[in-house]
Amino acid sequence: MSSRKTYYVTTPIYYVNDVPHIGHAYTTLACDVLARFMRLDGRDVHFLTGTDEHGQKIEKAAAAAGLAPQAFADKVSVSFRELIGAMNYSPDNFIRTTEPRHYRACQALWEKLEEAGDIYLGKYAGWYSVRDETYFVEGETEVGPDSKRRALSTGAEVEWVEEPSYFFRLSAWAERLLAFYEANPRFIAPESRRNEVLSFVRGGLQDLSVSRTSFSWGVPVPGDPKHVMYVWLDALTNYITECGYPDTSDALWKFWPADLHMVGKDIIRFHCVFWPAFLMAAGVAPPQRVFAHGWWTNEGQKISKSLGNVIDPVELVATYGLDPVRYFLLREVPFGNDGDFQRRAMIGRLNGDLANAYGNLCQRVLSIVARNCGGQVPGKGPLIDADTALLERARALLAIVRTELEEQAFHRALAALWDVVGEANRYVDAQAPWALAKTDPARRDTVLWVLAETIRRVTLLVQPFMPGSAARILDQLAVPEAQRAFSAFDAELLPGTALPAPQGVFPRYAEPAKAAS
Length: 517
What we know:
With 517 residues, this protein is α/β, with parallel strands linked by helices.
């Protein structure tokens, strides 16, 4: 667990040439869970997301839509804002690269790089992918059966570009980057991505073209407005724009360096090679960690517009419910690996983990309490070994989940919580409080108190993952809002507290009946 009181977590800023899909939802969800957890754990959190609105791709897409680039960006950016509400994210701000403050930050960073001698004017001649906004050397491309040259790594079509360009002396940074990686072994995660970046840097770095003259939709280069900045230099700067750069007296500068940049694996190179080099050259500390997660497929198929199998997160929520979708995305696949979205797996998690295991535990315990304990938190009598064992497992969860989330191991954190849910269900069956009602009411009450207390502790930790559902369960336990932060983790339920009537939180999912043909 970090000793810092602040916690700054960022999504990549999303490119406004498309509507949000499951990949965008997944990245932001991971950041949202971390932000919510850290707030509950007493950290001063800043959670940033936003949109990347410059570049040749946007300029072309806007022209095709018959709109000015700014009007096009305004229109498409809205869909990413709407996803925040649809998925119940909790960002502290939504940044756009067309904001005046961002222009100021980019130009200030550029001037620092110039002062350091790391930018020079030259001429770029090489292959460029408009779709990826990325430069490729000859060996990173191939001519396909359609006679079009494409990038080997992404399949995007590339075009030959020759134009004046400013360059960043990336070639001079290889050894300093390798030394930085060695001194900061947690900087790149997971390990497979770290190895990928190390291999790339050890292979030698070429100077990076950081300006374009063939289009104009971007941040003008200070002192030479015929050039606009390379979209990745512009985009990456958003993380420090938000903190007030270049004004380090800004109230938000306390959050820099960022604790975590969450990204997809396709943009690891920009965040782990270019970005720390830019920052160190400008005399700014690099972020503490970059985590690159995997991609989703759909029922075993690569997701693509041409196949018509793009997964709309809003449609998922409409079909399965908000919190079940949030739970599934972070539970189903080890975070960092690629994952396959399968309807049967989604339904299995909803009905198995949520309705049968967790939901049924809450419903049957609280229903027995309502029938037998006068609608109040039951009394707590002497504890036996079985009681203590379950309570100790529940008490241990905060430290376990804290450790797992520091490593972005969402799946392991959820598995630990559901292990205790499973243990609680077995405890119910073994203790049979319905039978104790006739033979030993005091013992029945103790069993029910142990179960209710276990549910409370588990549910406090479920809050970041499924905030709406957790709130409903905590309401049914009469846990005050002031006691839902982790500082109250050891504040036990008070016997005699009035409880509302129990209500189910996770209904089972049934496939809609097919219409008769």
